[in-house]
Amino acid sequence: DAGVIQSPRHEVTEMGQEVTLRCKPISGHNSLFWYRQTMMRGLELLIYFNNNVPIDDSGMPEDRFSAKMPNASFSTLKIQPSEPRDSAVYFCASSLRASNTEAFFGQGTRLTVV
Amino acid sequence: GESVGLHLPTLSVQEGDNSIINCAYSNSASDYFIWYKQESGKGPQFIIDIRSNMDKRQGQRVTVLLNKTVKHLSLQIAATQPGDSAVYFCAESPANDMRFGAGTRLTVKP
């Protein structure tokens, strides 16, 4: 398996624009996580899905952030409108099941909002 | 709220020495713990895990110790090598999610 695949690897956008980050989890994994990493706040869990259903989105910073998982092989994280403070590296991770198994991370999307 | 934290933000060791990275957790409901290694420009990579019914687990050159009494987790790396230089995160899983600590940067001096 190619692992967790995220796209794009880098995204530069202007403030106010919509940004969509994409993730393809490892085939057969039932849980998917979205994290945001910054120097100030470290790795923050934004939302996670179990069997394509959002379980906990309490980490989503604002209503400008939304995430979907229409099927077991694809998820998106959308920011609309984007702001400079959203600049960060966004990671997607998947695991075989929700609890007591390690999560495998993608390479991340580095987002810069100017 | 409860959170995972690290005692030391940076650690510098001599090549060949053993390294110990510490982590404190506060959620007593956590029953699964993982150590991740993150190299520059990459996503976190799984190193070793431990469940709450254990207090020690060994891997290749790495050992994780869990002390539930004081809610403390440590990662020991034997014979540290330059390739071990990275940021190390502990993560706890109290339920179905996974929360990370702040991270410790390990630098290995030749």
Describe the protein in words.
The complex is a heterodimer of chains A (114) and B (110). Chain A is an all-beta fold and 114 residues long. Chain A has no helices and 11 strands. Chain A has strands at 5-7, 10-13, 19-24, 31-38, 42-50, 53-56, 65-71, 74-79, 88-95, 104-105, 109-113. In chain A, strands 2, 4, 5, 6, 9, 10 and 11 form a 7-stranded mixed beta sheet that branches. Chain A has a 4-stranded antiparallel beta sheet with strand order 1-3-8-7, with no helix packed on it. In chain A, β4 (31-38) and β5 form a beta hairpin. The model of chain A has no long low-confidence stretch (mean pLDDT 94). With 110 residues, chain B is mainly β. Chain B is built from no helices and 11 strands. In chain B, the strands form 2 sheets. In chain B, strands 2, 4, 5, 9, 10 and 11 form a 6-stranded mixed beta sheet that branches. In chain B, strands 1-3-8-7-6 form a 5-stranded antiparallel beta sheet, with no helix packed on it. In chain B, a hairpin with a 3-residue loop joins β6 and β7. Chain B starts with a strand and ends with a strand. The A-B interface holds A 4, 31, 33, 35, 42-43, 45, 48, 50, 55-56, 91, 93, 95, 98-100, 102-108 and B 31-32, 34, 36, 42-46, 49, 51, 89, 93, 95-103.
Which range does the strand content of chain B fall in? over 45%
Proportion of residues in helical segments of chain B: under 10%
Number of separate strands of chain B: 11
Mean pLDDT value of chain B = 89
Order of SSEs of chain A, N→C?
EEEEEEEEEEE
Q: Gap between N and C termini of chain B, in Å?
A: 41 Å
Largest sheet of chain A: 7 strands, mixed
Principal-axis shape of chain B equals: globular
Unreliable stretches covering 5 or more consecutive residues of chain A: none
Strand content of chain A: over 45%
Q: What oligomeric state do the depicted chains represent?
A: heterodimer
Mean pLDDT of chain A: 94
- First-last Cα distance of chain A: 36 Å
- Quickly give the structural class of chain A: mainly beta
Query: How many helical elements of chain A?
Result: 0
Order of helices and strands of chain B: EEEEEEEEEEE
If you compute it from the alpha carbons, what radius of gyration of chain A comes out, rounded to the nearest whole angstrom? 13 Å
